Structures are given as C-alpha cells and as structure tokens.
Amino acid sequence: MILLPFYVDDIIKTALSEDINYIDSTADLLISEESVSDAYFVSKADGVLCGLEIAERVFTILDPEIQITNHIKDGERLKSGDLIAEFHGHTRLMLKAERTALNILQHMSGIATYTRKCVDAIEGTGASIADTRKTLPGLRALQKYAVTVGGGRNHRYNLTDAAMLKDNHIDAYGSITGAVNALRQKAGHMLQIEVETRNLDEVKEALDCGVNVIMLDNMSVDEMKSACELINHRAKAEASGNVTLENIRSVAETGVDIISLGALTHSVSAFDISMKWRK
User: Fold this and answer.
1) Spatial separation of the C-alpha atoms in residues 80 and 75, rounded to whole Å
2) Active-site residue 194, yes or no?
3) Average per-residue pLDDT in the chain?
4) Is 24 known to be catalytic?
5) Has 79 been annotated as catalytic?
6) Which of the listed residues 52, 57, 88, 236 has the most CB atoms within 10 Å of its CB?
7) How confident is the model at residue 279 (pLDDT cuts 50, 70, 90)?
8) Measured between alpha carbons, how far is 61 from 4 in angstroms, rounded to an integer?
C-alpha cells in the first residue's frame, strides 16, 4: 500500500468518532469485556479487492491484540463466496469496527472493480483510463489509490499539480491563446498546461500554443477521431465527458491517449462484502 499511514489513521479516527461517539449502546451494554470471537470477510460478488489493509487498520486501532489472517490481496480478482480475511479478537471491539471497515472496503473495491471493467474494455487500444477531481471530500487519496489498484491512472491530485484551462477559465480570460501566454509568463518551467476544447477550431488553437495536453470535451466519436488526426501526437489527447462502459471502446479507438471518467469515483456502486461470525 502506498498511502501514508498518518493520512489513513486520520480518516479512520474521524469515521470512528462519528460512528461511536461516546459508547456503543449495543455492544458495550450487551457483550462482556472479556468475550473473544472469530469472524471473517467474505465476497458476495465478482470484482477486484481494494482497501483491505485500510479496513484492517480500523480493527487494529481499536484492538491492537487482534489476530488477522489475509487470504486475498489488493488488486486480486474476487469471486462470490471467496474468503478474504479472518479475524480473532475481542468481540466488542470487532463489532465496533465492523461498519467503518466495511464502508471503506466496499467503497474502494467498488472503485477498483469499475475501473478494471473500463481498463478491460479498452485493452489493446493504447489508451489509458484516468480519474478526475470528482472525489468525496477527505477521501481523494483513498479513491485515487483504488483507481490505480483497478489498473487505471491518476489525473492531477489537486489544483497545484498542473494548470488546466477549462471552458470557464477560457471564457473568463477571453481566449485560449491569451490564457496560455499569460500562464507561461508566470508559471515555473515544471508546470504542464492542459486545455479543454469543445470543437476542432479550439483544438487547432490549443495545438498552435504548444500545450502539453488537449482535452476533447463532450465531443462525438467522429469529432474525437478528427481531433486526434489533427493533433497527430504533438500533444496528449484526453477524452472526457459522456463516456460510459458501453461506448468506451469506441472512444478509445479514436486514437486518444487518455480517457478520464468522473464516474470512477463520484457515483460508483459499493462492492458487496460481508463480515460473518463463526459461532
């Protein structure tokens, strides 16, 4: 896992504080402090596992003595019924950790699973799948990590990573050429510039400016194909907008280098994983 431990712990502690608050009115009043149990995670669908170490950290924060045995790693494909991990620890603490751990694991596995479907759909085309900044507040690094586990790539993490002139920037400034020139006068030599374009005239203007990446926003497949022929590898071509699993292959075959999808993170379905108890 490449996520920083302090970042992960902060997210988990915030979630646990939100969920438990003062006491767990069920587990604390029902289960004795000495009770010890065995439990396990099981997959209830087919997909890609992601976030297991993070989910398990929820348990170890609450119960440093818990024993965990993993059977599957992040990035591996799951089948319905697969045993993912087993737990042996204090019953009260495992009950408190269960929902927070599953929320994280199901969400991240959902992202990795959908990303893998998109990656598989465009296999052999030369295009890559990327995420966007359409992420949940506070969870961006987790979500972007899940995209990489599913075989995708990360777009910029935040507004500092690169200069992206979107339609509103261009409309506010007045023109693509003017905006790019103004940026170059102030930006450092390491900053890459991407321009969002809406038609072939804007593609040509962005190309003449020598930008690094040209986004083809909400264009038809035919328009994207013409744009890629015009760009001819002089800049990276990125397709964005109205891309679905049903049409993603056609988009990739236009010759674009990158296909960015907000749907990887902003509206993905949770992957079905359950925690079961051994009696």
Assistant:
1) 16
2) no
3) 96
4) no
5) no
6) 52
7) confident
8) 15
Per DSSP (E only), the strands in the chain are 36-43, 47-48, 67-70, 77-78, 83-90, 128-130, 163-165, 193-197, 213-217, 236-240, 258-260, 273-278
What's the pLDDT score for residue 1?
56
Contacts of 108 (CB under 8 A, 6+ apart): 50, 51, 54, 142, 143, 145, 146, 149
- What are 2's two structure tokens? 């490449």
Amino acid at 98: E
- 73 catalytic, yes or no? no
> 99, 117, 198, 249: which is the annotated catalytic residue?
99
Q: Give residue 171's pLDDT band: very low, low, confident or very high (50, 70, 90).
A: very high
Q: Which amino acid is it at 229?
A: E
Would residue 99 show up in a list of annotated catalytic residues for this protein? yes
Tokens of 76: 């591996």
Q: Which of 166, 234, 276, 278 does the annotation list as catalytic?
A: 166
Give ∠ CA 170-174-180 in degrees, rounded to 5.
Answer: 60
CA nearest 147: which of 30, 247, 266? 266
